Amino acid sequence: MTFSRSSTGSVKTVASTAVSEVASNAAESEPVKFLESKFERDTMRRVDWRMLPLLGLLYSVTIIDRSNMGIARTAGMGTDLSLNVGNRFSIASCVYFVPYILLQLPTNLVLRYFGARYCLTFYIFGWGCVELATGFVKNWKDLVLCRVLLGTLEAGFFPALAYIVSTWYTRQEVQTRIAAFFQTAIALSGFGAILSYVITLLKGHGGLSGWSWIFIIEGLFTVFCALLAFLFLPDFPDKNRFLTPEQTDLVLKRVELDRGDSVPDEITFVKVKQVLGDWIIWAHALMFMSSAMPGYAASYFTPIILSGMGYSLSDSLLLSAPPIVFAALCSFIFAWISDKAGRRAIFIAMQSLLNVVGLFLTGYANGQAARYIGIFLFSAGSSGCMSAVISYNANNIVGQTKRSVCSALIISFGGIGGILGTTVFRQQDYPRYIPGTWATVGAQILTLTLLTLTTATYAHRNKQSATRGDVLEGQPGFRYIL
């Protein structure tokens, strides 16, 4: 059967046909197989290349723009704006997360109404202008205002990316793809520290400090990226403009066969309330919060920790990059193995334990080399856990309303992890930050506890469905991925 995307009816035809196939496969206990034809492989490869490199670039800009505070402080901003007084640096760092947390759900709910391309372009252009303005602040209160505006404009970005990616791929393809753009962004942001060091060499030009030039140049590049987003950013599958009608129908059919939610459902208050009433969603959110906490601590405090270990300004900035690149590579390998194995929980647990080992090494080891290795380990564990938890949730939900709400809620809790990561590492605990180390280790224990509960619940529901015929997530034949 041939489908056309020129009308809304084509999507419904794809869905109805695919639902029949899902029911048939469920009845025969045969798994749906994908990527068996050259046309299908070529189509998904085209989707990969159009989507993942661009999303990785754009998200790396987000990471660099939100986390260059530690680098700027090391480069002189702390002295110029009196950020070393009391907890001013922690306050200026964590206020970003207040609007970032509060606005993620509403921005994700309106994403389909306004269109992903228009929304994301607006966000990127807006925070690029704020980043540019940050280079001209004269006191720490103006810096706080800029950070609030930055959090407001970045709030809708990452949950939108996670939501969009999950609508294009089947469940056993999602983690590798999320990890691909997420870890590409992490790796590119690692070179942001080196870039920032080079930019600081402009100190004195135009009567500006080196740290001011960091914000100005990175802000201008972000504004340029807004243009790239407007021209090339892919939208949802049913709204895309780069695939042929036949390729679009194939993408929609694959998603429908896998989990039955290729057709967007109407977002209503009742549905949102129902999603928010599921305790497992909140458990995933808390796991993401705990995973993000050491990651934010690393991005904000690695240059400062290295400085406390006796390294010079240039060495502290340059040595901040290798752990981030290692984290990206390590996390992508974990994601690839996880997708191949069709398992999620065991790999989240392994990376959470990697966090614990790395944190203890950085906090308690005596030699510089051992402490530096610790930064490698907990950076890798954190970034890997973050993409894995997002995938674990995306694998085990059906319906685009639920997908939209969950991605926003979970990633907003990452903002809470950011607040914790920037406040538990207090100025008075410099240079080893032992209380912050223990608080972050406690977050990993919370992750492992919640992971055990959610996985046991999913396994029990799968068993009940197999023995009693319970329908999971309202989709016949659906099984949770553990």
Automatic annotation (TrEMBL):
It comes from the Eukaryota. Keywords: Membrane, Transmembrane, Transmembrane helix, Transport. Residues 51-460 form the Major facilitator superfamily (MFS) profile domain. Gene3D superfamilies: MFS general substrate transporter like domains. The chain crosses the membrane at residues 47-65, 85-103, 115-136, 148-166, 178-199, 211-233, 279-297, 317-338, 345-366, 372-392, 404-425, 437-459. The keyword Transmembrane applies. It is found in: Membrane. PROSITE patterns: MFS (PS50850). Its main location: membrane. GO terms for molecular function: transmembrane transporter activity. It is a multi-pass membrane protein. One of its GO terms (cellular component) is membrane. This is MFS general substrate transporter. It comes from Guyanagaster necrorhizus. The lineage of its organism: Eukaryota, Fungi, Dikarya, Basidiomycota, Agaricomycotina.
